[in-house]
Design brief:
With about 425 residues, this protein is an alpha/beta fold. Helix content is about 30%, strand content about 15%. The protein contains 16 helices and ten strands. It has a seven-stranded mixed sheet, with helices on both faces. Strands 1-5-4 form a three-stranded mixed sheet. The longest helix has 17 residues. The termini are far apart. About 40% of the residues are buried. Bound molecules: zinc ion. Zinc ion (ZN) binds next to loops.
């Protein structure tokens, strides 16, 4: 097989190294990018296209981890390398912002606040041929969950023909957000130098993005990781208005529970409960927000997660709350890799300064929000009857480690999870 990047019709037999600036014709002449400038004309677009590498002003590329599939599609000849998206009719279904927080370079460092309004904010650049791509998309949908039908049957929620349709389906506005990292801001958030951050990102992705260490002039990085999805309940125009009460759940991905209802954790029950709280708030004239972060298994990934399950269930003495975090640390080196430091950014993007009802028991999420200046009113614990039996180990361990307990009745010493063979 010959290595020849001519699938897109452009003959390009040499490999373009992005790390050597003008010496290879990849000049640092991309549009100016002033992160944190409130006016998009001053801020400038994030340009991470690969169709015109001379005009990039960011490291990495769009679509998070799916960029690798795009590369595969190009390698396989299924996609022209110079394909340019036709964005006709893709504009957001609902308007978000601008909010004052967008003009504070310390408040938003992990997403592009203008990522959904490319057409409005950077229309002139796009018309001039610059390949500026959205990193945020906003649309509408209906969701239909058995737990919402249960809540309707139990009389906790009612069909109103607005938030909940006649068939029990819930109307939502949803937004998909790709990560866009402003490296000086990310470094500041974690209390490390920008150089140390760049070097770690470069070395521990197997040297995937040399520009991290060779192009200090490029301050923005689109990392190859999962982003987040927002589900908004009620009128999206009211979110962040400073008046309308807000219910919220910040949920970190757990495929085993969220999709397959595995009973070892409380993830899906808590997600469904959070959605119910959000729908209830929307029906009372407020708004609801579920933030769904692609951070599978505390951002350790499913392989690590399943190894930990085995280690927990096979250890001497059985699966107990007192060794819950220790087993994760043995396999992963840390108890948790989610680091909620970046999580509040999306609240700033939405203009939110207060959460009235927060469906979460995590002290890490609560503390991160408070540190970011977002007030949290009532913290809502998961109702005890929603906790699966095998998930009591996790609940006991978390409450014992400082999670908000609400009315949770601890039976720490009496709790043991199922063995692997049961
Ligand atoms: Zn889970």
């Amino acid at each position: 097989m010959s290595v020849n990047a001519s699938a897109g019709g452009r003959s390009r037999n040499h490999i373009v190294l992005t790390s050597h600036g003008a010496s290879t014709g990849v000049a640092a002449d991309g549009p100016v990018l002033n992160w944190g400038a409130p006016d998009p004309a001053l801020r400038g677009p994030v340009v991470a296209t690969l169709t015109d590498t001379t005009r990039r002003n960011a490291i990495g590329t769009h679509a998070g981890g799916y960029a690798v599939y795009r590369a595969l599609a190009i390698a396989a000849g299924a996609l022209p390398a110079d394909f340019k998206a036709d964005l006709t009719n893709t504009a957001p279904s609902d308007i978000i912002g601008p909010h004052p927080q967008w003009g504070d370079p310390g408040k938003i460092v992990s997403l592009d606040p203008f990522g959904h309004m490319i057409g409005e904010a950077f229309g002139a650049e796009v018309a001039g041929g610059l390949d500026v791509r959205p990193s945020i998309a906003i649309t509408r949908a209906h969701i239909d969950m058995p737990e919402i039908r249960d809540a309707l049957r139990a009389g906790r929620l009612k069909i109103d023909g607005d938030i909940i349709g006649p068939k029990g389906d819930v109307r939502v506005t949803k937004a998909a957000i790709e990560p866009v990292w402003y490296l000086p801001g990310i470094a500041a958030r974690f209390g490390v130098s920008e150089g140390a951050l760049r070097r770690a990102l470069f070395e521990h992705t197997g040297g995937m993005f040399p520009e991290l260490v060779t192009r200090g002039d490029l301050k923005v990085f689109l990392p190859p990781i999962g982003g987040m999805t927002l589900y908004l309940f009620g009128d999206p125009a009211k979110i962040g208005d400073g008046i309308t009460p807000l219910a919220c759940r910040v949920h970190d991905e757990c495929n085993g529970s969220d999709v397959f209802s595995s009973d070892i954790c409380t993830c899906r029950p808590y997600l469904a409960h959070g959605i119910e709280i959000c729908v209830e708030m929307a029906q009372q004239g407020g708004v609801g927000l579920v933030v769904y972060n692609r951070k599978e298994g505390r951002a350790l990934g499913e392989v690590t997660k399943f190894l930990v399950y085995n280690a927990r269930k096979r250890q001497e003495g059985g699966d107990l709350p007192e060794t819950y975090f220790k087993r994760t640390e043995c396999v992963a080196g840390v108890q948790d890799m989610r680091f909620q430091e970046l999580m509040p950014d999306v609240f700033h993007w939405l203009g939110i300064t207060r959460i009235d009802r927060f469906a979460s028991m995590s002290d890490m999420k609560f503390n991160a929000l408070e540190r970011a200046g977002i007030a949290v009113g009532e913290r809502v614990a998961i109702p005890e009857e929603l906790i699966p039996l095998d998930a009591r180990v996790e609940m006991e361990a978390k409450v014992s480690a400082g999670y908000f307990s609400g009315g949770f009745q601890s039976q720490f010493d009496a709790t043991q999870g199922r063995a692997l063979e049961e």
